Amino acid sequence: MIFDKKYKILENRFISGITYLLRFEAPDLRSSPSGSFVMIRSSEDNLYDPMMRRAFAIADIQGDDILVFYDVYGKGTETLTKKKPGDFISVLGPLGKNFFPEHFNDYLLIGGGVGFAGLSLFMKRLKEKGKSFKAIYGVRRKDQLSMLDWIIENNFKDDVVIYTEDGSYGQEGLVTRDLKQIISERKKTALMVCGPKGMMKAVLDVGKEMNVPTFLSLESKMACGFGICIGCVVKDIKTDSYVRVCYEGPVFDGYRIKF
Ligand SMILES: Cc1cc2nc3c(=O)[nH]c(=O)nc-3n(C[C@H](O)[C@H](O)[C@H](O)COP(=O)(O)OP(=O)(O)OC[C@H]3O[C@@H](n4cnc5c(N)ncnc54)[C@H](O)[C@@H]3O)c2cc1C
Ligand code: FES
Question: pTM to 2 decimals?
Fold first, then answer.
């Protein structure tokens, strides 16, 4: 069921880099699937600027609380930073129909930047189910590790290998640096990826080279978030047709999608 409601903000604070953490109380959303997302309207009730809602992954669910990690780029997210605990925000969700597949024996989760927030709830669910997994979290610099506290607080420190491009924290380099070796050390693993387009393409290339299933949680400019506007389409190579990221996704078999 999809809810279109106002929820009370409990926390909305700067974390690091350009990332904020938003926590709101939404009992309706407590059983949202991992990998699903919400569309949030950051404008005031009587104003329509910005007009469109913005899409954000559900990064974690703690009791009745929904956690979203968001990078500030433009008007939508800038306006969102002004919201205070006690304010109400309009949220549509949970959205998406296709999420990370759950039938693999082993998982390698790879998140770039705030894209890690698209994997964190799935990682939590894998751990709860006792599934075998490892995660890789890559950013440019240490100050962009906005989910590091979440990783530590939720006891994932030993499950996540961190890469910074400048070597200021963890391993130095890109998330693809040791990827072939990590894949070959794991038995029949599958890659679940979320992050910037270039990073996802690089990971997909490695996945293809090593013949490993690779699933991508895609981002696209979204106006409606539920399949109506056709604004978020990507090309499905297998069927030679277009699919809506919001409705047929947001997770796709990377082998089918044209970048
Ligand atoms: C399914 C889905 C899940 C998402 N989950 C998250 C999430 O968990 N956390 C998060 O931070 N973002 C997430 N995003 C991206 C987020 O929706 C956009 O960053 C947001 O809509 C930007 O809105 P804005 O008003 O700040 O920027 P806009 O005013 O729309 O854009 C301002 C400028 O920034 C550029 N820009 C906008 N977004 C991005 C971006 N993501 N990367 C680089 N440049 C950008 C635009 O091209 C433009 O030049 C998700 C997107 C989708 C589709
Ligand atoms: S955002 Fe409207 S169809 Fe996907």
Answer: 0.96
